[in-house]
Amino acid sequence: MAKRRTRLKAEITDNGIRATCLIKHPMETGNRLDSEGNKIPIHYVKYVKFSVNGEHVGTLNLGPGVSADPYLSFDIADVKAGDKLALHWEDNKGESDTVERVVK
Amino acid sequence: MQNLCTVAASWVVGGSGILNSMLANAAPRPDAAFLAGDADTAMMEVLGTREATASDQIKLDAPLQAENGAVVPIEVSTILPSPESIVVVVPNNPTPLLSVIETTPRTGNYLRMRIKMAGTDNVMVYVKSGGQWYVTSQEVRVAIGGCGG
Fold first, then answer.
1. Chain A contact for B119, CB < 8 A?
2. Which of B71, B95, B101 sits opposite A29 (nearest CB)?
């Protein structure tokens, strides 16, 4: 499993947090050609799941049309400092990553 | 493979709660729809209907003009009561379905992402609330398309 970097931060908002993540990923559509004219195989993040203190709070299913290095923000209500925010993603080749942050 | 990854990931963070919550919420992902080449097929699969009510309770923020179609930032917020699902579609993209967001009672009011656009087109955002689909859209003029090929 290739190592990919995922960054996750949480900003406190009026009624919870705004979770923002940056996933280092090529998000290939399968339509692009390399320098030799061969098709670059499709490779994209299929989903990003968020949970707070182990409770699932939302899934972002993505298609190959999301920009390279997906940069996503997602509001989650009723989250306070000290809560554990976790993110898990997986792509179409089975690569995945999980990160966890304590909300400050 | 999927199970292995989930187990490994869960082991890394050392919490079985995360694993359980992720397995519990294994709603089938509309894989075919994400690879469908025309918007109609994708929409029927995901929305199950062609009927959506135009709503000013969904706010879509996208640039009027984008120089580079590879990175178009969009921001979606809604005051519709308890949104269940948010769907982002760019009809003329090679794969028009961009994102399907499954929300819970704690989420769904705000979302931001960056998308690719093959050319000047509408960004359509569908929100399901109370079993009904609502839609809003905005045109983005794209100078250089960002889907390659």
1. no
2. B95
Number of domains present in the structure of chain B:
2
Least Cα distance to A4 among A99, A97, A104 occurs for A97
DSSP A83: P
Same domain, B86 and B101: yes
In this structure, what is the dihedral angle of CA atoms B95, B66, B64, A43, given to the nearest 10 degrees? 30
Instruction: Say yes or no: B41 and B23 in one domain.
Output: no
| ipTM of predicted complex | 0.90
Please state, for a pLDDT cut of 90, what percent of chain A lies above it. Answer: 87
- Distance from C-alpha of B127 to C-alpha of B136, rounded to nearest angstrom: 9
Which range of residues forms the domain containing residue A12?
A: 6-33+40-102
On chain A, the residues whose CB falls within 8 A of the CB of B81 are: none
CB atoms within 10 A of CB A31: 15
Domain that holds residue B14: 1-29
Quick: pLDDT tens for B85-128: 999 999 999 999 999 999 999 999 999 999 999 999 999 999 99
